[in-house]
Amino acid sequence: MSLILGLTGGIATGKSTVSNLFKENGIPVVDADVGAREVVKAGTEGLKRIEVVFGHQVISNGQLDRKALGKIVFENPKELEKLNRILGDLIAEWIHDEKERYIEENHPLVVLDIPLLFESGYQEVVDQVMVVATTPDVQLQRLMERDQIDEQTARQKIAAQEPIMDKMLKADFVIDNNGTKENTRIQVMNWLEKQHFLH
Predict the structure, then answer these.
(1) Per residue in 26-80, pLDDT tens?
(2) Is residue 2 part of an annotated ligand binding site?
(3) Structural domains in the chain?
(4) Is 12 annotated as a binding residue?
């Protein structure tokens, strides 16, 4: 039996850092962001849907123009909802197929790395949820630095997601990522050890 762990966090709270730690320890990670890119590649059903809903201006040379689409969806929560709605089932299908493939390969632990885990209802398909969290101040600071954006834009991006405090309350396990990467690594390794996933 594989344990299916849902991994989530807020934007810029360090979820990728934790995701990479799992990968480094040979644990398969199904990354929803990879799925989101896969389902909108040239010639896919997902790209067709985007063109129908958002128009030709978001397509360039048969490929998705991410900047153009990003501008539309980040400034308008309704548009973002629309995007999530038209691609949701395709991404869910991709995640499901990847997960099943790893289960068939008998991996004891399979991690589903999903930024909008709670917002998209994925807590229903995982056994446990791990949330990577920071304080709101640290999150804001890191996002501004990471994306080279001003405070207002950063706050907008954070506001587009469920507050990190709410996610922490629903988690089975919280990784405190306010400190150093080493500090985060120790927490992840401790969790793996306790669950007997380290060989």
Answers:
(1) 999 999 999 999 999 999 999 999 999 999 999 999 999 999 999 999 888 899 8
(2) no
(3) 1-28+108-199 (3.40.50.300), 33-106 (no CATH)
(4) yes
